[in-house]
Amino acid sequence: MKGNSVDLKAMINGEPTVDGVPHSSELLCFVDAVLTSPENLDSARQALRQVLTDAAFVDTCATVASFNAVVKVADSTGIPLEDQKAEKTAQLRAELQIDQLRDHGRFGQ
Amino acid sequence: MSNLTVNSEQLPARQALVTAIDTAWHRLATAGTWWTGKERLAIVEQVRLARNCTLCKQRKAALSPYTVDGTHDAANETSADKPNTNSLSPDAIEAIHRIATDASRITENWVSQITSGSLSEAQYIEIVSIVATVTGLDTLDEALGRDIRTPPKPLAGQPTLHRPAGAVKDLAWVATLSAETVSDEDPNPFPLHGSINIHRAMSLVPQEVINFFDLDVELYLKDHEIRDFDQEFREISHAQIELIAGRASAINGCYY
Fold this sequence. Notes:
Structural class of chain B: mainly alpha
Strand content of chain B: under 5%
Order of helices and strands of chain B: EEHHHHHHHHHHH
Mean pLDDT of chain A: 81
Distance between the termini of chain B: 33 Å
Distance between the termini of chain A: 42 Å
Oligomer: heterodimer
Helix content of chain A: 55-70%
């Protein structure tokens, strides 16, 4: 992973593929299906398993599960990003508009 | 390597992952810090019922979820086929449903309100942990393509009712501990899992930090593995893991 270039905007903006990550198309299609479109899940799973080993498929499922779970811990407690991390990633977060997600804390009140 | 059974297949899986899944289910059925085993499984049941709750769907579709009032479908279930549900208060059910279905739009104001009545802040945190845990377990099963697991029977026992003396509200919307304020009387999750903010988030109920992250580090990675790019710890690469993580977090609207 070190020294490689990854298009982070594509990753979070719903693009179907991300250059530089093996099997990104199948992985992203699978994540989208698990979390937003269960009607596509069987086909996405089948496509993913065509390109991954069984053990890699299990680890993919586990990673999706983790990031569908841990977000609830952060969102439900209002835990802030560490100052050091926020400082280091300020430009990146601005470009990706991630901080706008944090505004939910004032939304609708 | 061990195996996970998916329908008629045996898929190779790390033994630590298989053990963590079984341990998480056992803990869900066991008395916790603020809820009994029966109540914890009632929370699990509500998480699952929330997925098809009419009120939750209406709120999810609304510009602001706080403008839609009503009663959760699941709260109306009878005790005949949902024997655990009636042990939870309306505030507890409201908390479970909102965390399960619309966590990214939870506000500090709402957390303050929901924990100012019959539901204590510590009970709320234990609910957060249970919702997150069963969400992880069920998402894994759905992703694998197998039925979600039938919960085990609740185990007898009483909650410890232990609130850490050092917990203060200085970081999040709820009181938290740090590596400096945790005492010998508290379960201490920090040496095992780390003490960055996400590990502190549920530290008002420190046993739940242990319970949740014992599972999560096997679903994802241990803290020290996340930025160790010289080694791969899973059958997919760091880059692939972070691709999945980034997309899932974006879909969930999570800022962290």
